[in-house]
């Protein structure tokens, strides 16, 4: 093996790699926000009195969790334009990540809601609050706290899944590194660097979630 | 169906249950319950576990549904429509065996939540009420703590204050001291006695027979989903009429 490492193309490409990291962050954060909205909304609909709404959520969760993310993102990017919905790569990636993460979040958050004792719901109802208020003001926060570690790892996974958005050339770390790699043929150097970048991004995400948790879930439990 | 039927005047009882029956599938949990509670009256409901006493008081604020009969709270027929149910629940406070304080809210916030959201009081008004009632259950200095930082007895007193913040006309107690360590039972009972002395209408499911003797106007004994016997405490304890009652009293007072 007489391969000589040459990081020059990586160093020259560093500014674009770093801004690509911001693209990855944007996809991840926006995807998570959408996933959270879908997750909480899905749990509410999943508990609805109206049976078709519950079925809709069940079908959605099964559909998304049992198909590949790559196919989902291709579907939104290449198939939806046939129905007149045409989106740029970045919004497409955000929607795909949000929908995919949301399907998993529904199941995770539902587990959290089920872990809250029935007495909490009853105490809220007995005080004259209606069901929606009880869910929003009493159940939701302890439920999220209970499943926050699972949600964190799901969302770190979502962060790493942003790399698949390179398949529709959304602006993020993997697609930019592919460009540098194909210009320089320095595969090892480029992907080694990118691996480190993803590690740092994951670590930052986990720190972010830990900080959020320490602030938002600061109340003591037995 | 006529869901809100308020009769004028105050001649009607605070709570009346007529012919209430409840089934869980084939199992009948409540059998032909007829109970009338006057304003200011204190009722102690006792009986062996599974006798339906908790189910009965949970029907009064519609935490449980029932299939037959009628329940009126302060003249309002408790129908199955959300509006009536909410209206009745605002008049009926409930204290649970497991306290059920909201763990993510401070003691003060626990007391303010429903007045703010269900009664739409201003923050200032809700806080004033909450502080006053926390004072009354002698726990004002804990207002900014979280439930998990309090003892069981303190938590149950907060739960009583929280219910009182709605200014209910009736208080329901579902075994309020059963989950407490023995040394904390007294502080909760004292709070309940204080409440009784101020004239609150109360229905208490409890096995604290000392409390029943001291406070109750009537003791109602239930077994297998039916009311077996009801009498003023002096009579109930000294001269129980039914064999089932004697057996029960023998079991709980015998040791």
UniProtKB/TrEMBL annotation, chain A:
SUPFAM superfamilies: MetI-like (SSF161098). PROSITE patterns: ABC_TM1. CDD domains: TM_PBP2 (cd06261). Its main location: membrane. Keywords: Cell membrane, Membrane, Transmembrane, Transmembrane helix, Transport. The chain crosses the membrane at residues 17-45, 57-80, 92-113, 146-170, 190-212. Gene3D superfamilies: MetI-like. Pfam families: BPD_transp_1. It is a multi-pass membrane protein. It is found in: Cell inner membrane; Cell membrane. Signal peptide: none annotated. Belongs to the binding-protein-dependent transport system permease family. HisMQ subfamily. NCBIfam families: HEQRo_perm_3TM (TIGR01726). This is Amino acid ABC transporter permease. It comes from Rhizobium oryzicola.
